[in-house]
Amino acid sequence: xxxxxxxxxxxxxxxxxxxxxxxxxxxxxxxxxxxxxxxxxxxxxxxxxxxxxxxxxxxxxxxxxxxxxxxxxxxxxxxxxxxxxxxxxxxxxxxxxxxxxxxxxxxxxxxxxxxxxxxxxxxxxxxxxxxxxxxxxxxxxxxxxxxxxxxxxxxxxxxxxxx
Length: 163
Description:
By secondary structure, the protein is an alpha+beta fold. It has a single domain (about 5-15, about 50-160), classed as Stage III sporulation protein AH-like (Helix Hairpins, Orthogonal Bundle), CATH 1.10.287. The protein is about 60% helix and about 10% strand. Strands 1-2-3 form a three-stranded mixed beta sheet, with helices on both faces. The protein is flat and about 55 Å long. About 10% of the residues are buried.
C-alpha cells in the first residue's frame, strides 16, 4: 500500500519539522551567547524579502500537509475499518498528487516566465503567488492561460503578486 518513497518522504519531512520546532523553541539566551557580534537594538527594522514571503507560504503549506499526513497515517496504522483505511489511503494519495502538481506548476512558471512562485491547489481552485514588484494584469492573464492549458476541466485560478 505505502511505497518506500512515501515512507522516506514522511520520515525526512518529520525530521525537518522537528528540527525547525526545536530551533524556534530554543532559548534566546543560547542564541545570544553563540553570536559574538550581537548588539541589542530595539529600533532595528526587519526587512522581509520576496523570497522570504514565498518560503513562509511553503513552510506553512508543508506543516499543514505534514499534520494531515500524520492524521491519515494514524488511521492507517489504527484499528479502523477497511473503508476508513482505504479512505485515508486515498486522501494521502491525493495529497501527494496535489504536492506533485503544485511543484510542476511552479516549475512551469519558472521555465516560461522566469518568475519565482508558490502554488496551492485545493479541489478546482489554484492559487498562485508570484514574486514581482508590481501587479501586471497581462502577465497574470498569460499565467492563468498557461496553467489552464495543462488541464482538460476548467480550473478557478487566482494570481497574487507579492513584493
